[in-house]
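Please decode residue identities from the backbone states below.
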């Protein structure tokens, strides 16, 4: 809502979020609810209202200050990427499409794919022509997560998942990132998509966090981002069980993200990105930094907790 600025009806919002109440006669519905409140004991109502107000005051006090942006060092130039597995495409509106296309490896986070993504986002941050990013995969795969070699190295204590934080590139990107998870998202590959500002999922694709099936506790910030992005119950269930769920199954469970047919995911993401890109880059950068500042603190705390769990389980 904040990035796109589209107009939605009450029915639209209720379809996306079942906690929203939409009614043809909002006044009548409001009077009915108000009557139920009026029947309650006044001291208890006032006490609960005071608590609710204080919660709101505390939340507002914790909101980071608005950040003034300095793009003086940025340079506008064509995006060029020396990678066989990551493709960049910048249109005239400032929408950058980042395509992960390591078909042979099903878009696992190989050294080549990691290097390509790191280089791509570094260029995007430095180029003032870039206003919005669409991150997507190819075919049936969005991103398959860590390679077997990487997982074995972590399991044996030779590496830590924080050695190369490719999965947080979308959150760290200066401009908004829309993840088009048109294909399967697995482990750190799912985290990569969910750390984006907006994620669109596919009805047919499978999404899972299989760490527990691999014999160790989750990493890559999964313990934070899955409950945060997918909902507490669905996220925790996925972390504990390692179970795979399709986009359509998660939608039936009440997932708030848009879930579309695979063939429609990328087009919908690009359409949203173009609407977002109609706003000045400096405002988009400032808005994103304003809301991710607190998220970064929670994310990094999750990394620390996950590393401690790894130290115990290994």
């Amino acid at each position: 809502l904040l990035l796109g600025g589209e107009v939605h009806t009450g029915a639209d919002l209720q379809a996306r979020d079942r906690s929203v109440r939409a009614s043809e006669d909002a006044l009548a519905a409001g009077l009915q609810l108000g009557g139920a409140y009026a029947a309650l004991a006044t001291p208890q109502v006032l006490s609960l209202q005071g608590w609710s107000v204080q919660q709101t005051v505390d939340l507002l006090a914790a909101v980071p200050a608005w950040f003034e942006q300095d793009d003086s060092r940025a340079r506008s130039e064509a995006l060029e990427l020396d990678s066989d597995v990551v493709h960049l495409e910048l249109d005239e509106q400032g929408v950058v499409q980042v395509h992960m296309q390591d078909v042979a490896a099903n878009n696992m986070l190989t050294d080549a794919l990691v290097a390509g993504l790191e280089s791509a986002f570094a260029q995007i941050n430095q180029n003032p022509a870039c206003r919005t990013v669409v991150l997507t995969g190819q075919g049936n795969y969005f991103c398959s997560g860590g390679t077997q070699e990487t997982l074995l190295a972590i399991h044996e204590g030779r590496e830590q998942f924080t050695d190369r934080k490719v999965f947080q590139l979308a959150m760290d990107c200066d401009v908004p990132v829309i993840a088009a998870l048109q294909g399967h998202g697995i482990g750190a590959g799912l985290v990569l998509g969910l750390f984006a500002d907006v994620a669109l999922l596919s009805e047919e694709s499978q999404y899972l966090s299989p760490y527990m099936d691999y014999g160790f506790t989750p990493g890559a910030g999964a313990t934070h981002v899955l409950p945060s992005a997918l909902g507490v119950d669905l996220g925790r269930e996925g972390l504990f069980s390692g179970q795979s769920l399709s986009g359509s199954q998660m939608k039936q469970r009440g997932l708030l993200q848009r879930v579309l047919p695979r063939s429609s995911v990328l087009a919908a993401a690009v359409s949203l990105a173009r609407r977002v890109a109609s706003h000045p880059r400096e405002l988009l950068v400032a808005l994103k930094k304003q809301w991710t500042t607190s998220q970064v603190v929670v994310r990094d705390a999750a990394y620390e907790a996950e590393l401690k769990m790894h130290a115990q389980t290994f």
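Observation: The CA atoms of residues 212 and 241 lie 7 Å apart.
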